[in-house]
Amino acid sequence: MDKPVAEKDPNITKPDSDIAPSIASRIASLVADHSRNHDRTGSNNALTEGFRAGQKIAKISVITLLAIGIAELIIGQISGSIVATADGIDSLSDAMISFIVFLGLRLANRPADRKFQFGYYKVESFAALLAAIGMVAIAMFIIYQSYESLIQPHEIRQPLLTMVILAVAGAVSLHRAFQMRKIARKYNLLSLKVDAKNSIKDGSASIIGFLSVLVATQFGFLQMDAIGGMIIAGYIFSVAYLSLRQTSLILVDSWHNPKVADMVKKMIEDRFRIDEPTITVRSVLLRPTGMTAHAEINVEIDGNKRLTDVELMSVKIQMLIRSKFSSIERVVVVPHSISQQVHNGDPTDTGATVDAKKSKN
Fold first, then answer.
1. Half-sphere exposure of 80 (CA within 13 A, CB side)
2. Which of 6, 144, 170, 213 has the maximal Cβ count within 10 Å?
3. Closest of 153, 141, 170, 143 to residue 81, by C-alpha
4. pLDDT tens digits along 285-339
5. Which pTM was predicted?
6. Rounded CA separation 153/217 (Å)
7. In angstroms, rounded to a whole number, what is the distance separating the alpha carbons of residues 24 and 29?
8. Neighbouring C-alpha atoms within 13 Å toward the C-beta of 333
9. How much is the pLDDT for 43?
10. Which of 197, 221, 198, 201 has the alpha carbon at shortest distance from 211?
């Protein structure tokens, strides 16, 4: 006679060894689904594409500014115009700044290694900082030259040729600057944004130089040449200040919009309110790296959960954040236990939130 087959008790929980493969397959399935919608490889390709586009326009900027600067210096010496000379010095210095930006973008595109384990992204911000410091030095030199010309004004020779050179230089600089700004905004390249602002400043300075020479030669107000140089220097100072402020904040890990952390916290708690009612977001730490950002999410969960369940929850949180914030490249989820289990009258771990009086009882 055959022995009856014992029915399985549905209340008996499977051991972790049996559950682990199924949880792992669920994680793999989630990651695969997420990859189809938000391909990380595509994100990396976008970063690489952005760096390459930035390097190309920065290289063009170096060549263009060198040519403009040399032409303006020559006409400045021929005409004796301080504003043309100042604009030529400004263009040559801008070429140097564009070259620094080019090197920064080239280094930032390098993959992470054993020495720079989070990548070289902040090199781009550091290059922007150096460019801004260079702009301050240039502005100080132009002010000095303009002051001397203001004290001892002189007549400008070859005014028509000087105005033509300045007008052409302004038009070329502005055209290139707007191209650079378009690429900088598209790929969120901070150093290129600084260079674009600097290039717009350079084009505007050439237009100011044109008007200064026009007033000085056609209306006999010779001091306008020096005043134009001072206006250019003031414009440089304003752009340099904004660039120094922005790059410095990134280099010291200052997040530009603190409200984003509250948005991330609310988004996670709303998403897991039904499936994981015990989850609480303790803190959201955001760190800018230049083009991208890193996030650290500290969450409080039930300490009795299996490790595989915690891993699954972490993957879900990572995918949720990346789907809403494309600029956040790296997400780290740090779980903290809120278990109420007590051994020998003490909480089981540092993350426990157990009332001291209850634990003694």
1. 13
2. 213
3. 153
4. 998 887 678 899 999 988 888 888 888 888 888 888 888 887 787 899 999 887 5
5. 0.64
6. 12
7. 9
8. 23
9. 53
10. 221
Separation CA 100–CA 49 (nearest Å): 19
In the chain, what's the furthest Cα-to-Cα distance? 124
Pair 41, 70: CB distance under 8 Å: no
Distance CA 128, CA 184 (A): 12
Q: Which residue has the tokens 């236990």?
A: 337
Crossing angle (nearest 10°) for helices 159-187 and 190-218: 160
- Judged by DSSP in three states, 297 sits in strand
Look at residues 109, 104, 140 and name the one whose alpha carbon lies nearest to residue 251: 104
Rounded to an integer, what distance in angstroms lies between the CA atom of residue 205 and that of residue 233? 9
CA-CA distance, 73 to 94, in Å (whole number)?
A: 14
CA-CA-CA-CA dihedral for 62, 64, 65, 71, to nearest 10: 140
Q: What is the pLDDT of residue 70?
A: 93
Q: Please classify residue 10 by burial: count the beta carbons closer than 10 Å to its beta carbon, then call 0-12 exposed, 13-18 middle and 19+ buried.
A: exposed
3-state secondary structure of 180: helix
Strands (E) across 159-221 are located at none
Read off φ and ψ for residue 353, nearest 5 degrees. -120, 75
* DSSP category for residue 355: -
What's the token pair of residue 361? 């009882």
DSSP 4: P
- Is residue 346 left, alpha or beta, with left meaning phi > 0 and alpha meaning psi from -120 to 50? beta
CA distances from 145 to 141, 236, 251, 298 (A): 6, 15, 34, 56
